[in-house]
Amino acid sequence: MSAPTNPQSAAPASIEAPEPAPVADGPDSARPAERFSVIPLMALGLSVFALCSAEFALIGLLLDVSSDLHVTVAKAGQLLSAYALAVAVGGPVVTVLTARFAPRPLALTLLGVFAVANVAGALAPGFTMLMGARTVAALTHSTFAAACIMLALRLSPPNRQASAIAWVAGGLGLATVLGGPIGTVIGEQWGWRATFWTVAGAAVLGLVAIVLLVPGGLGGGQQVSVATELRVLGRPQVLWAMGITAVSQTGWFLLYSYITPLLRDLTGFGESAAAGLLFVFGFGGFVGNALGGRLADRSLRGTIAGMLAVLAVMLLVIGASARHAWPTGLAVLLIGAASGALVPPLQAWALGAAGGGSTLVLAANASAFNLGNAAGSWAGSRLLDGGTAVNVLGYVGAAIVLLSLLGALVALRKRRTGAEEAAGAATA
User: How far out from the chain centre does Cα 261 lie?
Assistant: First the structure.
């Protein structure tokens, strides 16, 4: 899961806002406030939504893919874990390697590669080619989002930086909560290959929108001191934050990766009802993401702890009541809300621990989300292959989330103690 951002909390007050990147000399170098336009930012946000939705588009179609390609559901689930793992491992590497390229041509190139990869997925005759196409598409994920954020910064005046970032962040957040439901509806109506064609078409539309609506001449990439970024990345609180992100994501995604088989085979929902519940999950995530930033502004520790507790309880509810429609439906809604609400405080924790403005920490935290997605999907497939009932994934996921809750309470207590000691030293 790439790390989506709540638009209302894109630049938390307690975190230093990233400095605007230098722009090239020329007519686009000076951008007074009166020239500020949201049209190119809308093009960037929609392009990010199109690309990042691909990660979750197959969640509701694993049964269809497994049947069509003659593989087990657990093996089909590896399409999710492989994608997330490619984003997690390849994202920071590709971001660093392409840091000196101008963001606009970089974004266009990556979006073109992504579109071609999804066409290859739509035409894939077997599982191996489909896996390869998904992996290539995944490698464009994090770097494309980073390039769009850079373009958003360079398109805006200094007093509108957070508003500009929010458009890109909104695309990431919407992709997380709506990618799965939209992909499921399209796939169930016209087949899972139609989902790939739709994603490829959306990428082409995004590419055209960037060409037509995002101006050129926005400058080259910044020179990055990898050594400095690595030192920041190695700070204990940064590592704690990313660890909690990865472990908590693993816990709930372990069940969510196989939520459609659970809803259809165990709870007894039909295809339409199961797809509808994915939209319920998406709605919960959207609302939770919108509220998470405001709650975290009041209490970062309380928000993280509270949402992790809700996740654990709801996973237990599904484990115990998967054969009953109403408890399962409510649990799906609240898992969506709690997982969405966790995103802003987890990002704020990592960025605050880094001192704000660390590109590598942003990429690494996004990787932590996707590493959790990969680990959850992989663990779920291993358990199912071993004969574990699908509802038992709820119990296992709850135990993992509770582990992350304990870790968060310990780490955030240390964070608060350290801050109090630093404040005392400053006033002494």
Answer: 23
| 428 alpha carbon, distance to own chain's centre | 43
Q: Is the pLDDT score of 98 beyond 70?
A: yes
Q: Half-sphere exposure of 21 toward its Cβ, with a 13 Å CA cutoff? A: 27
| Phi, psi for residue 53 in degrees, rounded to 5 | -65, -25
More confident residue, 396 or 213: 396
Structure-token pair, residue 299 = 């209490």
Q: Does 26 or 134 have the greater pLDDT score? A: 134
CA torsion, ordered 157, 160, 162, 166, to nearest 10 deg: -100
From CA 347, how far away is CA 239, in angstroms rounded?
Answer: 12
State how far the Cα of 322 lies from the Cα of 260, in Å rounded to an integer: 12
Q: Which residue has the tokens 């709690």?
A: 338
Q: How distant, in Å, are the alpha carbons of 26, 46, 167, 222, 304 from that of 218?
A: 9, 20, 18, 12, 38
DSSP E strands, 90-137: none
- The full set of domains in the chain, from first to last, is 35-223 (1.20.1250.20), 225-421 (1.20.1250.20)
Higher pLDDT residue, 156 or 84? 84
| Separation CA 20–CA 39 (nearest Å) | 20
Q: Is the pLDDT of residue 207 over 90?
A: yes
Rg for the chain (alpha carbons), in Å?
A: 21
